[in-house]
Amino acid sequence: MSHDAELELTAALNFCPGNIVISNAQGIIIKASVSNAAIYGVSQQEFVGSSLFELESKGILNPSVSLEVLRTGKEAQVMQVTQHGRVMMSEGFPIFDQDNNLYRVISFATDLTEIRQLKKEYEWLQTQFMAQSDQALSPPKQQTNLPSKSQVIGKIHQLLQRVSRSDASILFLGESGVGKTAFSKLVHEQSERSSGPFIEVNCSTIPETLFESEMFGYAPGAFTGANKQGKVGLIEQAQGGTLFLDEIGELPLPMQAKLLKVLQDGKVSRIGSTSSQLINFRLITATNQELNQRVENGEFRLDLYYRINVIPISIPPLKDRIEDIPVLLDFILTKLNARYGEEKVISSRLRRHFLNHTWPGNVRELENALERSYLASIGKMIQPFDDFSNQEQALLSPPQPVPQMSMVDPVIPGQRSLNDAMDEVEKHLLQQALEHCKGTYELARYLGISQPTASRRLKKHGLK
Q1: pTM exceeds cut of 0.85
Q2: CA 243/CA 281 separation, integer angstroms
Q3: pLDDT tens digit string along 61-80?
Q4: Which residues contact 250 (CB under 8 A, 6 or more apart)?
């Protein structure tokens, strides 16, 4: 390294606010930023020249992410607890020479102590709240558009009444269709940001190639084909309001890093812009996945996980709160009667079927099943769909995507080719599947194809 480069690197480490450590292949620290002293209690002069093995054995680096990189030769991420009780998220990266031998390891540490403390405070708040008797709790001022009689949902309403007043990030957990979006809107409506926008983003439905431009927007002329006036991103649109990221577990790793930077800095920059804008919004996320498992698999950033997981709220599936089914049926029926201008009622036989079903699709499946029976029933009494009185599973489960050949025109030489007929069958199958799938990832799993293939087929047939 030249003398000038050495001076520049030393100056960067002295003035850098982050915690950086550079070590050689033998586990000896050769460079370290000044800020490490405040975290680990060891000065820069003492750090440089020290052995990572010795620092780990003394509990100063507990554990050492750089040693993990030396052992595996791969990037690593670990949680550290310092001797002063601070919680650090450390990431280590290998650097190889021209002969592909491990030459250096560079690590970065982020202090998560304040985030963890905030999480503990809200967990304590939840514990204290849940311990109160039902009589001591005032009825919630507002309900979601999914009424309930179960105690657990009632307690969730009460909890949301408390936390809605803060700006703490909320993570809704639960199976698809349990009502995570409805609860997110309720938080927004009960918060001081209710007059601001509620921007909903389904992370599983935006192609990865378009995600950055959709989320962050772009400056005029930022790239070929860009709008001449530029575009306001979804994050900017949430200014002063709430940004709801549904299916956060599907967020691509590069976008996770960019979102984390926005949350840390409170600023957002459009693609192609040299300036940034201050941004102020409340973040709510939701997922039906085990995020902690995705963190362990390296598919979700640990530091972002702690940012969004300040107040985790788990919504139980419908099969665990069957007392909600009758009130949901009456509520959905009222909406259907208003929509179609009818005064239908639910037969006792249909109610019995609905109460005995396990509802893997939860409230969304319940709504679809009732509407299907509603439209198929003649007269005012709603009977089971197609009168499948002894076929409950066939009644309530989504139909399998089998092509209805009678709906496809025959192949006629000179007028209609085999390819045209096959395209029509494919479009019909996609239309059927879209009735039961929320996004392209779910559509791909439903049809047994890849997500990029599902997106291409939808675009080919002009379907959304």
Answers
A1: no
A2: 7
A3: 888 999 999 999 999 888 88
A4: 203, 204, 439, 441
